[in-house]
Write a structure and sequence with these properties.
5 helices, 13 strands, four-stranded mixed sheet, single chain, 218 residues, alpha+beta
């Protein structure tokens, strides 16, 4: 990773966005996750939040105690050194999430993919998913890569309410709804695992780069 490959941009008056590339790839996302863990491990003063995305890493900081130029320089240097410091950063955590596969869209997914319900469940539980990023609502983790045979477009008409704990699929991703929200993904099951709890530290169960395995329960 060279200095030319990394570009810093201000985001408002209290955040720096470090751009790693212009084309989404699993390799690039892995580098961004590594950089995020390196920044976390470095314990840079005045950093308040670290937010990985598909092409960039955004770091929020206390603008009353440091400047954009100072923070951008530190972050660029830290990201450039990631291959040396990543060994000190926390390793990705693997989560096993129990799922009751009784979702309202399970039969529809089965017919749309020409797979039996049992095959849909088997293929959904067969993969170890990576947390790409968090977004949409607090604690909502986009997980990839869904088995190609299960990949379907989002619902044409989103539901006005999807219950927290709903396990769903759309496109090449799967996810668990952390809160009661509108949603357009296909619901195939549910879990009692709390994906977001404001009283927990940290509130979100999953972190970008973490690994997730779904396990079927009766």
């Amino acid at each position: 990773m060279t200095h030319a490959q990394l570009r810093a941009h201000p985001l408002g008056d209290s955040a720096v966005t470090i751009v790693f590339g212009v084309e989404r790839t699993s390799e690039l996302l892995g580098r961004i996750h590594s950089a995020a863990r390196s920044v976390e491990a470095a314990r840079i003063p005045h950093v308040q939040d670290i937010v990985p995305a598909y092409l960039a890493l955004t770091v929020f900081y206390d603008s009353l105690h440091t400047s954009y130029d100072e923070m951008a320089a530190i972050l660029i240097e830290t990201c450039q050194r990631q291959t040396r410091v990543i060994g000190k950063a926390p390793l990705p955590t693997e989560h096993r999430i129990p799922v009751r596969y009784d979702g309202v869209d399970l039969e529809w997914v089965s017919s749309s993919t020409s797979l039996s319900v049992e095959e849909v469940i088997a293929r959904h539980t067969a993969r170890l998913y990576t947390v790409d990023l968090l977004g949409f609502v607090p604690g909502f983790a986009y997980l990839s890569e869904l088995d190609p045979s299960l990949q379907l477009p989002r619902r044409a008409q989103p539901r006005p309410r999807v219950a927290a704990g709903s396990v769903a699929i759309a496109g090449a991703q799967t996810a668990v709804y952390p809160l009661d929200t509108p949603g357009g993904w296909h619901i195939i099951g549910r879990t009692n695992t709390a994906m977001f709890d404001p009283a927990r530290d940290p509130p979100a169960l999953l972190y970008p780069g973490d690994l997730v395995l779904f396990e079927r329960v009766a």
